[in-house]
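Fig. S4 source data, part A: sequence.
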Amino acid sequence: MTRGKRWLLTALIAVALPAAGAAEQAISRALLPPEVDELRRLLAPAPEIAAWVAVALAALAAFAGPRLQRWFFARRAGRAPNPEVEALLVATSVVQLPALLALLAVALGAGTAALLASLVVSTAGVAVQGASRPPPL
């Protein structure tokens, strides 16, 4: 894969989850009745804790991401048509899973600070993934 295609793919992956979060917030505010906000206030303590745990998990996943990418690339090399793309997609998905959990926690009543923190950490983790290339075959 060329460097330009790799950065384009990385950029698309990096903006996907923040865009989904923004869309979810907009749709939620536009379509859900005000009673849902009351329910979220009642549930708020538990999702808030889960959202901050997701921030820590996002940091761990971002740190482990390049190693996971190299490991997956080594496993798929020679067996897949494009193991570099597969390794990038799998490794960035792992990095974004905690931010997805934080997005769900916000939908259940957590504050947006943890969501923003996990989105920043996971997006930075995806950028690190895009910068790290698997070893040549």
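Fig. S4 source data, part B ends here. The chain has one domain: 3-131.
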